[in-house]
Write a structure and sequence with these properties.
about 50% strand, mainly beta, 7-stranded mixed sheet
Amino acid sequence: QVQLVESGGGLVQAGDSLRLSCAASGRTSTLNTMAWFRQTSGQEREFVARINWIGEHTAYADSVAVRFTMSRDNDINTVYLQMKSLKQDDKAVYYCEAKGNGGSNYGSEEYTHWGQGTQVTVSS
């Protein structure tokens, strides 16, 4: 089993930066892909970014590609989402998710582990 714990959310102003963290524990050797999704009330969970657990490949949603950067530190089993130039549209609960090999990397339903979420609120 794998446990994921997100942190770093909060209330910021438009244009500010914020860094989210996701600490993984348990059977992390089974993981292939880590991702961030976000969700607003009444909406489906939306893909934000992903990174391979091994290697450097990353991918981003078009809406965040030039503003967000996902990275990881395998020494402490933690992934990060650095968010810059935040907009009110970025307001959501952000979830860290993880999975092994196989399946789409862009659908939350393909991921087998997720955290409790961390709230990001952006004020004008």
